[in-house]
């Protein structure tokens, strides 16, 4: 059984970012930083994190909202995002993970953050799920993904829904073209419906298309397997 515990990762400005850690049994083959929008972990998200740990990765999820002091901010970008990611990166390195064996996984606006991290940080791979802000920035501290994607420095996988009004298909196609100009491997996959998101609260496997769920999860695992070496 994978071990789960909480820790604090020092940030350069003397603050500390709270992190939830799930470790594999035995030696870790690398580390994955999971970025997420919620201040709480849903059971489906925790299940996915445990599955990554069962696959041999140390999984580290920071509380991206630890600076808000109760404010209702729901997106963290700019210097705060990079500082918190760097703290997680350093935590993993300090626990024996090699620099090129660190990956990042993000959902929704945190998926946008994961792509932006992969444009400026020395990581091994990145995965974004349903990342918005494709044609225009989500916040003044973020870049539109069509502008950021050609600057990717780590292999990046993007998973989208064809029926998500936040990320319409023509925007996803623009992102696919932009990512293809990067100097690293990229792949953008679109699924019909909204049936590939087992990380969502209230996920009922019987109510979803199992093939889409399995394909999406398999691609995530295979992406990290292929590039975190």
From TrEMBL:
Listed SUPFAM superfamilies: alpha/beta-Hydrolases
Gene Ontology terms for molecular function: hydrolase activity
Keywords assigned by UniProt, alphabetized: Hydrolase
Top-level lineage group: Bacteria
Gene3D superfamilies assigned to the protein according to its UniProt record, in alphabetical order: alpha/beta hydrolase (3.40.50.1820)
Natural source organism: Nocardia otitidiscaviarum
Keyword Flavoprotein part of the UniProt annotation: no
Pfam families, per the entry: DLH (PF01738)
InterPro entries: AB_hydrolase_fold (IPR029058), Dienelactn_hydro (IPR002925), Dienelactone_hydrolase-like (IPR051049)
Domain Dienelactone hydrolase: 20-227
Name by which UniProt lists this protein: Dienelactone hydrolase family
């Amino acid at each position: 059984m994978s071990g789960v515990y909480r820790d604090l990762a020092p940030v350069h400005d003397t603050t500390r970012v709270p992190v939830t850690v799930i470790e594999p049994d035995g030696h870790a083959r690398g580390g994955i930083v999971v970025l997420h929008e919620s201040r709480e972990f849903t059971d489906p998200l925790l299940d996915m994190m445990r599955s990554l740990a069962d696959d041999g990765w140390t999984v580290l999820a920071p509380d991206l909202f630890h600076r808000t002091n109760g404010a209702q901010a729901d997106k963290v970008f700019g210097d705060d995002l990079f500082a918190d990611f760097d703290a997680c990166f350093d935590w993993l390195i300090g626990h024996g993970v090699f620099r090129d064996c660190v990956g990042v996984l993000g959902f929704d606006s945190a998926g946008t953050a994961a792509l932006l991290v992969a444009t400026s940080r020395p990581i091994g791979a990145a995965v974004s799920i349903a990342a918005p802000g494709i044609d225009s920035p989500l916040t003044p501290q973020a870049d539109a993904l069509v502008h950021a994607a050609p600057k990717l420095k780590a292999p990046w996988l993007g998973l989208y829904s064809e029926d998500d009004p936040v990320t319409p298909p023509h925007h996803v196609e623009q992102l696919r073209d932009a990512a293809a100009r990067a100097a690293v491997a990229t792949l953008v996959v679109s699924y019909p419906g909204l049936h590939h998101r087992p990380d969502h609260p209230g996920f009922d496997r019987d109510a979803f298309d199992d093939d889409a769920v399995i394909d999406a999860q398999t691609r995530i695992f295979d992406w990290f397997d292929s590039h975190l070496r």
